[in-house]
Amino acid sequence: xxxxxxNVLVKHAINILHGLDRNPEYRMRKDQYCTLLxxxxxxKAKQAEKxxxxxxxxxxxxxxxxxxxGLQDYIKPWGKRxxxxxxxxxxxxxxxxxxxxxxxxx
Length: 106
Prior knowledge:
Radius of gyration: 17 Å
Helix content: over 70%
C-alpha cells in the first residue's frame, strides 16, 4: 500500500514539474535566475535581484502546490479513500521523502 502511495505522489510531483516547465512566467524568471547564478561576482543590486527572483519563483511554486505541505494535502484524501489502512503520519513521511527528491530537481 505504501508503494502505491509513493507512486501516486511521484506522479503528481512530475505533473507539477511539467506544469512549471509550461508556465512562461516561471520559465522567464528561472532563466534570469540561472544567468545570475553563472556570474561569479555580483553587485549588491544583482544580488537583490537574484533574491527577488527566487522569492517570485517560490511564490509561483507554492501557488501550484509544489511544496512539501502541498504534497501532503494532495495525498490526504487518497489515504482516507483507501480504507484508512495507513495512518496519516506514514503518509506524511512518504510525502516528505518525495518532496526531498523534487527539491533536488528544482
